[in-house]
Amino acid sequence: MAEFLVAAAAFLLITVAAGLVRILQGPTAADRMMAAQLLGTGGIAVVLLLAAAAERPAAVDVALVLALLAAFAAVAFVKGATSSGSGDPELPEDDRG
Amino acid sequence: MRLALDLFTVLAVSAGAFFFLAGTVGLLRFPDVLTRLHALTKADNLGLGLIVLGLLPRAEGPLAALKLLAVWLFALLAAATVAQLVARVALRRNGRSPGGSAAG
Amino acid sequence: MNGAWLLLDLVLVPMILAAALCAVGARAQFTGIVFYIVYGLLLALAWVRLGAENVALAEAAIGAGLTGVLLLGALARLPAAAPAEPGADGSPGTALRLAAAILCAALALGLGAAVLALPEPAPGLADVAAAHLPATGLGNPVTAVLLVWRGYDTLLEVVVLLLALLGVWSLTPDPLWGGVPGPRHRTRPEGVLVFLGRVLPPAGLLVGAHVFWAGADRPGGAFQAGTILAAVWLLAIMAGLTDAPAVRGLALRLVLVGGPAVFLGVGLAGLATAGAFLGYPPDFVKPLVVLVEAALTLSIAVTLGLLVAGAPERPPR
Fold it and tell me: Which of A5, C40, C107, C208 is the most core-located residue (most Cβ within 10 A)?
């Protein structure tokens, strides 16, 4: 069973590695950010699979932290994309982009 | 029983891996930012959910299972909000590459 | 058993190298930052693969939580037309680049040779640490090393963090001294950012407390927990739900020095109770370590949060 879980983790890694290509290609900043998001979600899944395969429950805490903080980089990105750097893309007055 | 649970794990994890693959294909093949965003945030979180589901029978107890579910819930929350916010940014830029230092 | 793990390593290691190369070599700063964020994530995976959950937790919290916010925030403040082209004003010429590349390659080769030349099993104090772990009452050998056996290092580390914060504050323009770091963030009142800023910090407090408490017996500890708390604090600030504090506040400064002060106090008390600086009386090792870690968690959280927030930009209220 452990081999299957590790093999599944390796498969997932190969899958999300394709996201690296999207970060290189873009073309927009949003594309690059979302590709990093894909690697983040995939990374969480890989950690969970490895934790189960190696029977190291402490590794689940790593996945917990990764999931909790998964939105942070993207939040900083959308903040930086507003005209003032401290606005909200949902605010009309920031719509000068 | 053990065999049935193992079979369940294999099936759910495989299905989860399939959705990750689908998300990646979408990320690479879809024509514009918004469709790519759509492919990603839905497919990979469904994949993560299926993998969590598959690992539940192997959790050490109810608390460990709860932690696994919490991982998925956090990831869902992040994906939903990030998709919304990044889509706003992408819409505003109207498809062109962001100006200034953020340019690719 | 080994086949699947080998396959995983064969995928993971090239990915780490590729992400690192792209982070360094990317022409646009934004692309480099995204690769660097991904690089941190992959490193966390590598630490999990090696069974080093303590390090993986720290890498996950710092890499996923703080580094991205710090670098993207810095990028947003750079002038839009920052020179990125090689050769432009003052950037190193070909000879200097070549010399740097040769030196780096030599260093990498030397390190590789040193690792390969290590005897098998590698010499270390792991066995000694494991043998003496029961005497501390702690279950996590990493916490025992950091706070009991090598307390000096950890004490100096938290002082260095504090000094780094002073360094950032020293960039404050005179009229704003003691003021509020960063801009006041505005958000749409019932928008998505506000929603995230309301939902995540309580969950982050819970996870942070869990990681701190687990640290005594399982992977976790003050640095990891403090980083998580700092990250959710910054999120609440970015969501406009709260403002960064004015750095001249007395309460704030007490929290900042609280961790190192408690650590130092316990260490000095060790002179009387255990006969050595940073020693613990044998029956009270675990409670004292937990006390020090609690104070450190708060101090580290506030220090890291303020480090990312930067130098004061607005006058004190």
Answer: C208
Residues B81, A71: C-beta atoms closer than 8 Å? yes
pTM (2 d.p.)? 0.88
Give the residue, C295 or C84, on which the prediction is more confident. Answer: C295
CB pairs under 8 A between A and B: 162
Please spell the DSSP secondary structure of chain B, one letter per residue.
-HHHHHHHHHHHHHHHHHHHHHHHHHHHH-SSHHHHHHHHHHHHHHHHHHHHHHHGGGSSSHHHHHHHHHHHHHHHHHHHHHHHHHHHHHHHHTTSPP-GGG--
Q: How many CA atoms lie within 13 A of C52 on its CB side?
A: 12
Rounded distance, CA C261 to CA B74, Å? 35
Instruction: Kindly report, residue by residue over A6-60, the tens digit of the pLDDT.
Output: 999 999 999 988 888 888 887 888 888 888 888 899 999 999 999 999 988 889 9
Clarify whether residues C147 and C26 are in a common domain. Answer: no
pLDDT of residue C17: 92
Count of domains forming chain C: 3
Please choose, from the candidates C249, C204, C253, C211, the residue with its C-alpha nearest in 3D space to the C-alpha of residue C230. Answer: C204
Q: C240 and A32: CB-CB below 8 Å? A: no
| C113 and C177 assigned to the same domain | no
Which chains neighbour B (Cβ–Cβ under 8 Å, 3 or more pairs)? Answer: A, C
Chain B residues in contact with C30 by the CB 8 A cut-off are 101-104
Same domain, C169 and C42: no
Q: What ipTM was predicted for this assembly?
A: 0.92
CB A29 within 8 A of CB C76: no
Report the C-alpha gap between A69 and C228 in whole angstroms: 8
Q: How many domains does chain B have?
A: 1
Residue where one domain finishes, among candidates C79, C101, C136? C79
